[in-house]
Write a structure and sequence with these properties.
262 residues, mainly alpha
């Protein structure tokens, strides 16, 4: 457990350190502000692991393998259902959020945050697979390898992307490195879990999230920059997303009930 924590810390601070060395301290500061907002959003998603990890570990200790799969399918669907609208929503409100939150002098953060927001979905998935399945089922080695892969990918991509694209390059490297962690973890579990069941409602979440994004982004372009309108856009986005999930008959409500009652 010590090694994966080192790997996580390395590639979380690697971008900022390399930006400061290969570009400028200012660029490193811009990326750091973007990173803080993404991590703030992810705190909500990561909280799911606190609930699911002990339950999966208990089921594994009692050899209740069918229950482990049920927990995993329910937990994965839940993090997908909340991380996808968070990703799309953050991208939609970023042009207004940055100047209000950081002042207009931080306008360079806008494209960085919009790109880095894409990593939310991959981090949410790797959190669900790694912390809620691999660790409690004693697959520490696979979990560690996935994080080391992410650190290596981040290091290899950072040098060329930062040199040519600066902070935007660092955000692209972040997204790809997080994706590599998730892809490896999915490869590890593809014979243990039914991937079709795991991603069963993903298309519905993506459709609802994309429609929500288009509407909220359009509203954002037509309204003044103020906290009131940001709150309005968030409220409208939540309503649209939930209504669309109901219309598309997503199973998240039943799976949420399963998480709460089991």
């Amino acid at each position: 457990m010590f090694i994966p924590q080192i790997a996580v810390q390395i590639y979380w601070v690697l971008n900022k350190t390399m930006l400061g060395s290969l570009d400028s301290v200012t660029s490193s500061g811009f990326f750091d502000q973007s990173d803080k907002i993404v991590k703030l959003v992810l705190a909500i998603v990561s909280a799911t692991g606190t609930v699911m990890l002990p339950r999966v570990a208990n089921a594994f200790a009692h050899r209740e393998y069918s229950k482990i799969k049920e927990y995993m399918y329910a937990g994965f669907s839940f993090v997908s259902a909340i991380s996808i609208p968070m990703m799309f929503g953050l991208i939609a409100i970023t042009p207004k959020l940055v100047p209000l939150f950081f002042t207009s002098q931080f306008s360079d953060v806008i494209p960085v945050l919009m790109i880095e927001s894409i990593a939310i979905i991959f981090i949410a998935w790797s959190n669900a697979i790694g912390n809620q399945y691999l660790l409690p089922t004693n697959q520490n080695k696979s979990y560690t390898v996935s994080l080391i892969i992410g650190a290596k990918v981040n290091l290899m991509l950072n040098i060329p992307l930062i040199i040519y694209l600066g902070t935007v390059g660092a955000s692209i490297a972040t997204v790809i490195s997080e994706m590599s962690v998730t892809v490896y973890q999915i490869f590890i579990i593809h014979k243990q879990l039914n991937l079709h069941t795991l991603f069963s409602d993903l298309s519905k979440y993506l459709i609802a999230g994309l429609v929500m994004f288009l509407i909220v982004f359009k509203i954002s372009l037509l309204t003044p920059t103020s906290w009131i309108f940001i709150l309005l856009e968030i409220t409208v986005g939540i309503i649209i997303y939930v209504v669309l999930l109901i219309f598309l008959k997503a199973e998240i409500i039943n799976k949420l009930k399963f998480i709460m009652h089991k």
